[in-house]
Amino acid sequence: MSLEQAAQSPASAKRRRGGFSQHMNEVSLFVAIAVLYIVFTATAGGFMTFNNQINILRDAATIGIAAWAATLIIISGEIDVSVGPMVAFISVALAYLLQWGIPTPIAFVFAIAIGAALASIAGILRAYFDVPSFVGTLGLWSALRGTALFVTDALPVSIGRNEIVDMLDRPVLGVPPAAIIMLVLFAVFAFVSRRTAFGRSVFAIGGNPHAAFLSGINVARIRVALFAIAGAMAAVSGILLLSRLGSGNATAASGLEFDVIAAVVVGGTALSGGRGSMLGTLLGVLVITLIGNGLVLLGINPFFQQVVRGLIIVVAVLANIQAIKRGAARNKG
Amino acid sequence: MINSAARQSSARTIIASIEGCTKRYPGVLALDDASFDVAAGEVRALLGKNGAGKSTLIRMLTGAEVPDSGTVRINGEELTQTGSARAQESFSKGVRVVYQELSLVPGMTLAENLFLGRWPRKAGILSYSEMEAQAEEAMKRLGLDLPSSRLVAGLSPAERQLLEIARVLIGKPKLVILDEPTSSLAAAEAEKVMTAVQRIAGEGIAVIYVSHRMNEIRRISQSATVMRDGRIIDTVDVAGADTREIVRLMLGSDVAQAAALETKTRETVVLDVADLALAPKLSSISFMLRQGEVLGIAGLLGSGRTELLQSIMGVRPFDRGTVSVDGKPVGRPKYKGMLAAGFGYTPESRKEEGIVPLLGVDENVVATDFAAVSSKGILSASRMAEATRRIVQRLHIKTAETDTPIGTLSGGNQQKVVIGRWVHADSRILLLDEPTRGVDVEAKAQIYTIIRQLAAEGRSIIFVSSEIEELPLVCDRVLVLREGTLKEEFTSPDIDQDAVMAACIAGH
Questions:
Q1: Model confidence at B4, in pLDDT bands (50, 70, 90)?
Q2: Which domain holds residue A210?
């Protein structure tokens, strides 16, 4: 009996510590968001208006929808850098589909299928040919942007009037549909990541791919599926981009992939895989979006904004890691 | 008398000696009043089962550990430093170790590897000509005739091992310690390493050779020191000692007798392996596993035990042979297909291949069968907890909660979870590779009980172990794997650990 207790107590202490540090991540992100709100409300005129808050939500959707899928990819120990060009490519492809007179809902389905199929190339290269996902998606990054620019000559591809596409940019009770879609997808991803065999397998693969394989988890198939999902999510972003701009645009969403990765990492997901959470990414997306929005309102030189943003992202991650470490150390004592 | 054989020759120049050393770790007496010496030009074999104190003895000589009492002398001078300075002191007196794990950088040349981190420089620029000249000289001393500008990536395992040895020859060593240098090599390749060892000794360097392969020991060393329970048991003249006697010294006689296993005649053959070969490790392996049987496979490190299990499971493609399940050949086994046929496999390295450390016990258990704890594709938290609790209770896993991260559990409990996941999947044929490695005594006993219980339920189990003394406790039958084939078979209750050990290390 005493032996059993002796064996149990350190385990349970560590468990509390683990739970606390996970908590710590989200708590410190909440604090960061609160600080950003206080600072921007005090210094940036028009930050706290309803319209601006809606803007923040709409901007968050651009990063968020891709970030949900990117979170799963990074938890599984992979990376996807092809998001921005994929979004732009899909908006162009969809614009052409609509120009050819394909019924809008079917064109949407096609667009999502194209996104999934293209992204799964990187997944297949990773899963069956051991090509690092960074390389595979870097190839896509270059090829997709290039194809879109080549085909359109960098000019917007207009779609004319389209009731369904326009509807996607018309606020519902003041809330843009993009934000609603983002939040619905968030709920889906949060559920899938926690409550399905697929979601838990992603964590297992990121935590120890050998053990996952030997347990009978189909590691290769899940890796391909993850990239296909990421492609589908980028396609959803591409559809929303089209509805927002009214045209397919090969130069759009430039640098989006870095915002997405930054949001996931700021959200506490480990780049080494195996650890992360959807809620963390949600908060990370808010942090990145708030910084972008606030800096614009402050009227900071757009070139210098990039410097400030870079600094804030690194400091946020540094502070988060320190907070988790301190939390763990306090709990240990 | 202790050291009697070695002490007889009078013209010995003692290079290193340990006098009355004791080292205690929490809960273990790792070294108990040990005295030992080795002379110039001598190849001394060091024998003892896992945990006998061989590595502690080596750590004394290298200065990696300070003895609680007793002295360590190199070249007649006592080591006086503590901490990391002590290892430096021992190193500067000429003590070098070649470890089991190879520490070479595959993408760099032989010369660069030999000088790793200590590359000769002229005015801050690497001097390749000097490096390559010195490297080729060191390799020539071992009979390794390779251009030093080649990449390590293209070398055979034996050549890599020789390169490791060549690395310690740079800088005039006095004592070279080799820790199972041939364990990862096939017999023909081991030959090259032994020739190299003889050359080193011929130069007047003292060599300590840790190995369990008696035929190697007989080839290259005159005397062998046997350790057990942290003590030096004896140093014997290799030529005059027979293998059984050495085994008796290694295992001792105070071993608890195996509780007699109930012997049943078992009829149904569930797994039949015929003439399986995988070059260069395995040639012509044939055996059968019957329902409800625990079949032990004994063999030294590197004898091909893991390769055999992985071949059967379809993780490692083999060259030829057939694997039949329930009398039907499966062709080329595929891992997924073997799992579907009711197999379960636990790997040798728990940390690298067994557990997902950040995930809870529950998720580590149910990963083998998510469907059993889901309804309509959604994981049910309550069913997951219930399934895990069942496994935790059956296998006596000590964990605070069912979702405690498995990385925080002790090794023994982690191992029970890894076995438990196949109980969750209701596998009927379990292939367990070293399930008691790195596990404490109490957990070992529990794992033996668990294995017997699983067999009593009609599951069939292959139990691979390098700890000979546990085989009679668990197995109905033991096969000995040596030199790529199954050499001998022992059946309960006639599984005599001395005989099994002798069969494992036998050198004719």
A1: very low
A2: 29-325
Distance in angstroms (rounded) separating the CA atoms of residues A313 and A288: 8
Contacts of B355 in chain A (CB under 8 A): 208, 211
DSSP of B434-457, one letter per residue? STTTT--HHHHHHHHHHHHHHHHT
Q: How close B439 gets to chain A, by Cα (Å)?
A: 14
For tokens 């636990």, name the residue.
B346
> Of A195, A204, A210, which has the smallest distance from its Cβ to B359's Cβ?
A204
Q: Which of A8, A18, A216 sits opposite B398 (nearest CB)?
A: A8
If we measure between CA atoms, which residue out of A25, A92, A85 comes closest to residue A281?
A: A25
For residue range B124-153, list pLDDT tens digits in order: 888 888 888 888 888 888 888 888 889 888
Does B67 sit behind a cis peptide bond, omega within 30 degrees of 0 on the bond before it? Answer: no
The shares of helix, strand and coil residues in chain B, as percent rounded to the nearest 5, are 35, 25, 35
* SS3 (DSSP) at B100: coil
| Chain B residues with beta carbon closer than 8 angstroms to that of A272 | none
Question: Which of B240 and B508 is assigned the larger pLDDT?
Answer: B240
Q: CB-CB: which of A12, A15, A204 is closest to B363? A: A204
ipTM score here? 0.78
Interface of A with B in 218-247 (CB under 8 A): 218
Sign of the alpha-carbon torsion through B332, B336, B340, B342: positive
Radius of gyration of chain A (CA): 21
- Specify if A184 maps to a domain: yes
Residues of B with CB under 8 A from a CB of A: 315, 335-336, 339, 345, 347, 352-359, 363-364, 367-371, 374, 377-379, 381, 398-401, 404-405, 408-410, 413, 421, 425, 442
Set of chain B residues whose Cβ sits within 8 Å of the Cβ of A208: 352-353, 355-357
| Angle made by CA atoms B161, B164, B166, in degrees to the nearest 5 | 110
SS3 B226: strand
Instruction: Give Cα B48 distance to the centre of its chain.
Output: 12
A18 CB within 8 Å of a chain B CB: yes
Domain of A257, CATH number, reads 1.10.3470
**Percent with pLDDT over 70 in chain A:** 91
Query: Is the residue at A3 inside a domain?
Result: no
A14: in domain? no
Indicate the pTM of the whole model: 0.80
State how far residue A49 is from chain B, nearest Cα, in angstroms.
41
Contacts of A213 in chain B (CB under 8 A): 335
Which segments of chain A are extended strands (E)?
157-158, 247-248
Domain total of chain A: 1
Rg of chain B on CA atoms, in Å: 25
Q: Distance between alpha carbon B459 and the CA centroid of its chain, in Å?
A: 27
Residues of A in contact with B399 (CB under 8 A): 8, 11
CB pairs under 8 A between A and B: 96
Pick from B372, B407, B377: nearest CA to B391:
B372
Closest CA to A112 of A130, A129, A124, A97: A97
> For residue B310, what are its two tokens?
């992985």
Q: Comparing A300-309, B312-321, B364-373, which segment has the lowest mean pLDDT?
A: A300-309
Enumerate domains of chain B plus CATH numbers.
1-94+175-185+206-254 (3.40.50.300), 101-171 (no CATH), 269-505 (3.40.50.300)
Of A15, A197, A208, the CB nearest to B400: A15
Peptide bond into A85 cis (omega under 30): no
**pLDDT given for residue B100 in this prediction:** 66
pLDDT of the residue at A327: 65
Q: Is residue A5 part of a domain?
A: no
Burial tier of B388 (Cβ tally within 10 Å: 0-12, 13-18, 19+): buried
